[in-house]
Write a structure and sequence with these properties.
By secondary structure, the protein is of the alpha/beta class. It is about 45% helix and about 20% strand. It has 6 helices and 5 strands, in the order βαβαβαβαβαα. The structure holds 4'-phosphopantetheine (PNS). 4'-phosphopantetheine (PNS) binds next to β1 and α4.
């Protein structure tokens, strides 16, 4: 079965990576798709977000990394994807995720959303939290892959704290 794990990945965290690794054991093919939504502001460019994912997923053989600037379900239909994967951290994620899963199901009835529960050690983790802690000089090494930590610290250094996070 072909699955898609869509997201902003701004940047990818160890929580995302954990979901990708687990999904790759369940599904024969996993498309990790970086979504570019004009209505959202990102810290990293689309290319940087893709590069960071590529750098830390070399060990996973059945994934394809791609990007898309549109409605998720259009990508899903166009690529004959069977399942949408989303990670669930806490009850607070649930309402938004349920709404999205239902809307996607209504737009394409043969595609289901499968939720993977996040590992408990990442249950509070988000890209925004990582950026906030890094911005104020905290240690983010336990939450993101090494390459992401390096790029985030470089970005903060180069912008002298002037970056939008
Ligand atoms: O990691 P995120 O930001 O929670 O990703 C959510 C995602 C990928 C669904 C969203 O950011 C996005 O870009 N969607 C594209 C528009 C879309 O399909 N929205 C859902 C309609 S039901």
């Amino acid at each position: 079965m072909r699955a898609i794990y869509p997201g902003s990945f701004d940047p990818i965290t160890l929580g995302h990576l954990d979901i990708i690794e687990r999904a790759s054991k369940i599904f024969s093919e996993v498309y990790v798709v970086v979504m570019e939504n004009k209505r959202k502001k990102y810290t990293f460019s689309l290319n940087e977000r893709i590069t960071m994912i590529k750098e830390c997923t070399n060990h996973i053989k059945n994934i394809k990394i791609d990007s898309f600037k549109g409605l998720l379900i259009d990508y899903v239909k166009h690529n004959n994807i069977d399942v949408i994967i989303r990670g669930l951290r806490a009850v607070t994620d649930f309402e938004y995720e349920l709404q999205m899963a239902m809307a996607n199901k209504e737009m394409c009835s043969n595609v289901d959303t499968v939720f993977l529960m996040t590992d408990k050690k990442f249950s509070f983790l988000s890209s925004s939290l990582v950026k906030e802690v890094a911005y104020f000089g905290g240690d983010i090494s336990r939450w993101v892959p090494k390459n992401v930590e390096k790029r985030l610290l470089t970005l903060l250094e180069e912008s002298k704290g002037g970056v939008d996070i």
